[in-house]
Design a protein that fits this description.
Helix 2 runs antiparallel to helix 10, helix 5 packs across helix 11 and helix 6 packs antiparallel against helix 11. The longest helix is centred in the C-terminal third of the chain and has 35 residues. This protein is α/β, with parallel strands linked by helices. The strands form 2 sheets. Strands 1, 2, 3, 4, 7, 8, 9 and 10 form an 8-stranded mixed beta sheet that branches. It has a two-stranded parallel ribbon with strand order 5-6. It contains 11 helices and 10 strands. Helices cover 45% and strands 18% of the residues. It has one domain: 3-Layer(aba) Sandwich (D-Maltodextrin-Binding Protein, domain 2).
């Protein structure tokens, strides 16, 4: 009988050490420069769990944190060229090819949570223009990860106004934040996130620049004692995927990954206020002083910073003007 023949064939295959092919699974490797304990790391863990759950294990996610594979400045090229399937990149890492991305780093333009949420919302004119431009680099944006406002770190007192930064070496993580420091009288030094601690410890720079969640994730209270909550710009990261790899997935796989990405994006954005509050509390517990500039001090910063915006608009072309106008109208 036919059924008996199939059963016999399978049994025979087992006896000679053969087996039926296992169902293939897709592996998605993601590189991250921050520690896994950071909120971006935990956001990737949430994404991993969601993908593996809704795909029934058909898509596996591997996370390589703490710059094990690539430093943050290497991520766009690594993903765009297909060396790895996905990675977390600071938005500003695309500024060389797309100057308009630094609209988020224009001094005091997107300096409230309400403005930032409107700018990064899926379908907003700011986000859509940037996502479309990044898609031309060989990578596509899967989701945006909130990192909070920019703070300044120092020892011995706050950086309350432009006078306090004159002549000081300042860690920066992007071209236009460097331009801002130069414009207000400091000396910018580009240092990757994973190298911050040593830079502060060794005195490579006098002043730090980061998001407050980074202070907690990297224990920067061991090398700096003051946070100035200047909130000059908004720090955004994004998870990008190699376009060829993405196009090679099945419709189901893209659907599962996209669904998990939407969950991860909503989670990290909604949690950001609490994440920052917790980070400030931990910083104070470890002896750091938190300083909030007065309105007069913020106005002094804003006035001193205007040339940065003027120069950026000149260099960022039509796309820069488009996203700047959209951001101003939020």
């Amino acid at each position: 009988m036919k059924t008996s023949w199939i059963a016999g064939a399978l049994a025979g295959a087992a006896l000679v050490g053969l087996s039926l092919p296992a169902m293939a699974e897709t592996t998605m490797r993601i590189t991250l420069q921050l520690p896994l304990k950071s909120h971006l790391g935990q956001n990737l863990v949430l994404f991993k769990n969601e993908v593996e759950k809704i795909s029934g294990g058909e898509v596996k996610v591997e996370i390589y944190d703490s710059a094990q594979l690539y430093k943050d400045n290497e991520v766009p090229e690594a993903v765009g060229s297909g060396q790895i399937e996905a990675g977390v990149a600071s938005l500003t890492r695309f500024v060389g090819e797309i100057p308009a991305v630094d609209v988020f780093y224009m001094p005091f333009l997107l300096n409230t949570e309400e403005k930032v949420r409107a700018a990064v919302a899926p379908g907003s004119p700011v986000r859509t223009a940037i996502d479309d431009a990044i898609a031309e680099t060989g990578a596509s944006v899967l989701w945006w990860q909130a990192y909070g406002g920019v703070v300044l770190l120092s020892n011995g007192g706050p950086i309350a106004n432009p006078e306090d930064i004159k002549g000081k070496k300042v860690r920066v993580f992007g071209k236009w934040l460097g331009e801002w420091i130069d414009t207000v009288g400091g000396a910018p030094t580009l240092i990757s996130g994973s190298e911050q601690f040593l830079a502060y410890q060794r005195g490579t720079v006098d002043v730090g620049m980061t998001g407050v969640s980074g202070v907690s994730a990297r224990s920067l209270w061991d090398v700096m004692d003051t946070i100035t909550r200047v909130n000059v710009a908004d720090i955004e990261f994004m998870v990008i995927v190699n376009q060829d790899w993405w196009d090679g997935l099945s419709d189901d796989e893209r659907g599962w990954i996209s669904q998990a990405a939407a969950t991860a994006e909503t989670s990290v954005r909604d949690d950001m206020a609490g994440i920052e509050a917790d980070a400030y509390a931990k910083a104070e517990e470890h002896g750091m002083t938190i300083y909030d500039p007065t309105e007069a001090e913020i106005e002094a910063w804003r006035t001193a910073s205007q040339p940065v915006i003027d120069k950026w608009l000149e260099e960022s072309g039509d796309l820069g003007q488009t996203v700047y106008d959209a951001a101003k109208n939020l």
